[in-house]
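User: For my dataset I need records formatted as: sequence, then structure tokens, nothing else. Please produce one.
Assistant:
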Amino acid sequence: MSTIDLHEAAACLTELVARVQNGETIALTDGEKQVAALVPPPTSRERMGYGSLKGKMWISDDFDAPLDDLKDYM
């Protein structure tokens, strides 16, 4: 992660945005203290549709059966 002073960042914002678009994260500082960060946007994820996990998951027939470890509390 690169760091740059906030006042310098204002002068070269276009360059910083181009660097962030390439995947770099840039910390903005005011003196010694980090005050913000420029980060790339999250990658878009394909939305899962209904039935997209069919055949990939299963639920045990006894998933709601009492657990032996908890019989004393029931």
